[in-house]
């Protein structure tokens, strides 16, 4: 079903590194034909086994030029690298899923007050650490991401994010889908 009768919904998915946001986002857009994933730009180098499509990987110069030209609806510097959401294509009539950090979520909310904010959290820090090790982050990156996660958790609470704990992938997907469906009908 195309969502032509109403404004597209913006859904922001945030959460600490290693929580599985990428997998959740993919599952959501695969099962929900009215939802498309926004592809962010980043200056961060691609991780070894990271999908080429995960980001548009660009140089710092390219990122800054695009920012100068008002090419992002929001952007942030996260642990020394830039990340930004490109201005969506005018023709988009579907709902858009943004997998971005809480600082980005705040900027989107300021521009579009109807934004749906969802914070995905890990069951516990040891599980988060295990996932970060597994994907190849080094010891310093792991500590930084855990600390950043703590800050984000607090900010998310004060911004009124919905919170979903990713204990089990299919249950987390189901909960997020429920939140999105409720927002579509409210
Ligand atoms: P990672 O390096 O783990 O892929 O991403 C680091 C953080 O940047 C994550 O919290 C991720 O959600 C966030 N992020 C990814 N894309 C964007 C974006 O376009 N804008 C903002 N503000 N954050 C982003």
Strand order of the largest sheet: 2-7-1-8-9
Oligomer: single chain
Which architecture name of the domain at 10-38 and 93-185 does CATH use? 3-Layer(aba) Sandwich
> Biggest sheet: strands, sense, closure?
5 strands, parallel
The number of distinct helices, counting runs of at least 4 residues, comes to 6
- The poorly predicted ranges are none
Report strand %: 15-25%
SS elements, strand count: 9
Give the termini separation. 17 Å
Q: Write down the CATH topology of the domain at 10-38 and 93-185.
A: Rossmann fold
For this structure, what is the CATH homologous superfamily of the domain at 10-38 and 93-185?
P-loop containing nucleotide triphosphate hydrolases
Category from helices, strands and their pairing: alpha/beta
CATH class categorisation of the domain at 10-38 and 93-185 = Alpha Beta
> What string, H for helix and E for strand, traces the elements in order?
EHEEEHEEEHEHHEH
Task: List cofactors, ions and other ligands.
Answer: guanosine-5'-monophosphate
Average pLDDT level: 93
- Described by the principal axes of the CA atoms, the overall outline is globular
Alpha-carbon Rg, integer: 16 Å
Instruction: Estimate the helix proportion, in percent.
Output: 40-55%
